[in-house]
Amino acid sequence: MRSAIQLRIGITIGLHHEAETLWNNGIKQNAVFLAEALKHCPDVASVVLVNTTAIPITPALPWDQTRWPTVIFEAAKDNVDVLIELGGQIDEMQTDYLKQRGARLVSYCCGFEYVHAMESMLFNKPLWGQNLFVNQRYDDIWMVPQVANISQPYFEVLRRTEARPVPFVWSPVFLDERTRALPDAGVYQPHAGPRRLSVMEPNINVVKFCLYPVLIAELAYRARPEAVALLQVTNAERLARENMEFITLMNQLDLVREHKAVFLGRHETPVFLAQNTDIVVSHQWENPLNYFYLETCWQGYPLVHNAHLCADLGYYYQGNDVAGGSARVLEAIDTHDAQAAAYRERQRSLIDRYLPGNAAATEVYNNLLLGLMRRPAR
Fold it and tell me: Which end is more exposed in the chain, N or C (fewer Cβ atoms within 10 Å of the end residue's Cβ)?
């Protein structure tokens, strides 16, 4: 039942190009998925995406602007009751304008900001230089659950308010669109013969790095060399060409010595899965839930992973247990094809908890918004 409140919501994005791809990171997808989720809340009247950069809004954007209206900040500033800062940051003057109107401001945290800051300082990777603006006027901090363990104190001390975990949201809408023209809509297809193993970690920080998945694949290959056709490691071409530590370490492995491993550049997940992959091997450190896992499982591919927040998906192994991960790879080799259709249906049923419109998640978000509006503005 609706309350008297009917909220107008804005969610920020930070475009760098008017036709920017959705597949270079998850932030823009995150904004769209959150918009779709909030549209199901009974006390939400409207949701718009708000671009905070100077890039113009054109029909070249890779989403339906009728379904997900997208505007610049100037067009939104008088027409939102809540601005959720997610993919683009507003400045001090814009914050002050919203506050004078009585609008609420939420910091939605879906990145591992503590790790990014730590690596920036330790390894001289410029992140913000002298232009850092930490907004201290947020009315609330919402964080996806997978970032809470390592980044919640970092958020709270610098932003000076409490951080609350919120439901993680994902939708197959862009995945379905990207795979529509692929054979079999890009879903996993059983076949005879040895398996192609794929590792698709981004390799841009310690959170999602390819080394343990490579070691898992190596153990599987040592146990059953005839069952492994190839190991493919994406986002690793530069490491394999330029980093002597990486090259020297990889050269210790049977997969490399016997020319069963290739190190590739960047690829779009749905296309690479459909064209190149039989089994995905993954490892995370403080990132126990992300879109990649859901994309892989939704399409029915066996995912060997250690993400405890979604341990019921795919083929789970615990922590850094590479022997356990290798055993799950061999299990997938031996058993997956016989139950591929049932596996895919089960994965999709389990993933329902993350979909926009899920009743439990909708209730949480609606209550968060109502609580936000009932508390005095900061």
Answer: N
